[in-house]
Amino acid sequence: MVSPDGSMSDIILEVSNLTVKIRGQTILDDVSFKLKRGKILAVIGPNGAGKSVLFKTLMNFLPHDGRIVWHGKVKIGYVPQRLSVGDIPISVREFLSFKKAVVKAGCLSADNCLNLVGLDFEELSDKQLGALSGGQLQRTLIAFAVMDLPNVLLFDEPTAGIDLDSEEAIYEMLNRLEKEHEMTILLISHDAHIVRDFSDYMLALNRKVIFFGESKEITNPSLLREIYGSETVLKTRELKV
Amino acid sequence: MIDGIAFGILTGVSVGFSAGYLGSLIVIKKMALVGDALSHVALPGLAIGILFGFNPFLGAFAFLFASAVAISHIEKVTRLSPETIVGALFTLALAIGILIMPEPELLEALFGDIASVGLLDTMFAVLFSAFAVILTRTIYKKIVLSLISEELAISTGINVSRVNLLYLLLVSLNVAIGIKVLGTLLVGFMLVVPAATAKNIANDMSKYSIFSSIFGAISAAFGIMLSSYMALPSGPSIVLSGIALFLVTVLFRWRKP
């Protein structure tokens, strides 16, 4: 499959016949798609559809069959779905400085990258990671991911477990990052309603590719039934971008 | 006698400081029981060293490191928790160690004997403790990031398996050098209690790791002085000092929830 309006020279990611098996079970089956540079791709699908496995495979964490080609010089920033902060007494400042210490060259300072995601360094730097609200934690994770100025951002469930206002604010911020820093963004979501208005393309997965195309095309009820296995109607909302 | 106490204190402080530093990672890894139980695995290694006439430290270190690597692999293959695997392994090691260890050395191996610490032991302990702290410092941030999210750490370019293996090696080294002072039954204390004490009062990682190292060193120094002046075994005296510090921080935490 080719990005609907994409010419080959603009392609940043090319996935062909990707199959992933974990302990003998097929999690992704013959997945193919291409993505243009500087666009936002939303990966949607029900639980167990293989969305997170797709991301881990794109980052080469998992063995696979098929081909994954990143074109040009690609630096990936990753925002995981879950953290195990538990009771680790790590402050926001330390969390960000640890990445700077590991990556060493070409990193933004902790206050710069927190400002970039709309957080106040003075207010949050000494706060423990485990004491942040859901929205603050997600923004801090994005700050961590963009610290070394990646050109691709992989975002696993950006709004899981946070309230609606924070959810919208995070999507607005991702849109801003995409435009101002020309990032290609891939994000996973359960929520086709919101990401339809926010993303350029959608990849609907249920182990196989059910749909790949422009996000505005996803309103077809029979397509939604095929993805989610039940009657689903998409609501429209406006984002302040 | 003064020299003996001085050697003992210097050895204990070195081991306590490095064990406190390395142990701060064990506690946030939620592997306190593993760290404690792992130390018992040294007993058969010590016994083999004594029986075959080579340095018991080398036997203990070899057994500890082999066990740590085995636990890590068995965990990956079976998906059993490390606690379960160590639970099985350490009782087996203790049983074998007690059966083959010559009786005169058994008590010293189990509980430590500060009187037997000489100049060479002290130099050995200071050198290896410093080595363990310096090397752990180079991987400390990487391990913390991998604990928060393994995928996040890998995406940052951290080789998680390699840093974990190096960490296990350093913990084994630290336990092996601590056995002389604390014995195999009590050396695990140094990896757990100073860190738990520090966690009660620290509000960031930097203070947490420094406090943990300092509490390890203080527990050892006070414990060895106590054992020397009251003619008590060194291991249990160090444990009592450390627990006293822990209780003080519990009270501190109680007053400032």
Describe the structure using short key phrases:
heterodimer; A: alpha/beta; Rossmann fold; 6-stranded mixed sheet; 3-stranded antiparallel sheet; 32% helix; disordered C terminus; B: 257 residues; ABC transporter involved in vitamin B12 uptake, BtuC; 12 helices; 86% helix
If you had to describe this structure to a student in words, what would you say it looks like?
The complex is a heterodimer of chains A (241) and B (257). With 241 residues, chain A is α/β, with parallel strands linked by helices. Chain A has a domain at 1-73 and 188-241: P-loop containing nucleotide triphosphate hydrolases (Rossmann fold). Helices cover 32% and strands 26% of the residues of chain A. Chain A contains eight helices and nine strands. In chain A, the strands form two sheets. Chain A has a six-stranded mixed β-sheet with strand order 5-6-7-3-8-9, with helices on both faces. Chain A has a three-stranded antiparallel β-sheet with strand order 2-1-4, with helices on one face. Residues 1-6 and 236-241 of chain A have low confidence and may be disordered. Chain B has 257 residues and is mainly α. Chain B has one domain: ABC transporter involved in vitamin B12 uptake, BtuC. Chain B contains twelve helices and no strands. In chain B, helix 1 packs parallel to helix 7, helix 3 runs antiparallel to helix 4 (56-78) and helix 10 (187-201) packs parallel to helix 12. The N and C termini of chain B lie far apart (45 Å). The model of chain B has no long low-confidence stretch (mean pLDDT 86). The chains are: A alpha/beta (241), B mainly alpha (257). The A-B interface holds A 56, 59, 61, 76-78, 80, 82-91, 93-95, 98-99, 101-103, 126, 128-129, 144, 154 and B 28, 30, 141-142, 144-145, 147-149, 151-152, 154-158, 199, 202-208.
